[in-house]
Amino acid sequence: SVLSMHPHIDSIRRRVSELHIEHRDLNDIIDRLSKAPGQDQLQLQRLKKRRLLLKDQILHLERQLTPDIPA
User: Fold this and answer.
1) Nearest-angstrom CA–CA distance, 47 and 36
2) Residue 71 — very low, low, confident or very high, per pLDDT cuts 50/70/90?
3) Cα angle 31, 24, 2; round to 5
4) Using CA atoms, how far apart are residues 45 and 3, in angstroms rounded to an integer?
5) From residue 64, how far is each of 17, 20, 38, 44, 46 by CA, in Å?
6) Burial class (CB in 10 A: 0-12, 13-18, 19+), 11
7) Each residue's pLDDT tens digit, 29-55
8) Can you give the C-alpha Rg of the chain in angstroms?
């Protein structure tokens, strides 16, 4: 594909992939912690905030990969 000839786009794709993995890992951790008795609510809040930031980063990077389509 034409896009793969651009190292910048390849590096964005790699980063998006890494962020998806980290996001999925955080989901698993949050699920496990939220089911554990006596969990640390502050820790859960921090992890959820981190997960949200990751999602924002993923969306931002994915927008860079999507070419602008004129209206």
Assistant:
1) 15
2) low
3) 165
4) 38
5) 14, 16, 42, 31, 27
6) exposed
7) 999 999 988 888 999 999 999 999 999
8) 16
Total length of the chain: 71
- Range 54-60, long-range pairs (CB < 8 A, 24+ positions): 54/19, 54/22, 54/23, 54/26, 55/23, 57/19, 58/16, 58/19, 58/20, 58/23
In this predicted model, what pLDDT tens digit does every residue of 6-35 receive, in sequence order? Answer: 788 899 999 999 999 999 999 999 999 999
Amino acid (one-letter) located at 68: D
Number of other residues whose CB lies within 10 A of the CB of residue 19:
20
What is the dihedral sign for C-alpha 31, 22, 5, 65?
Answer: positive
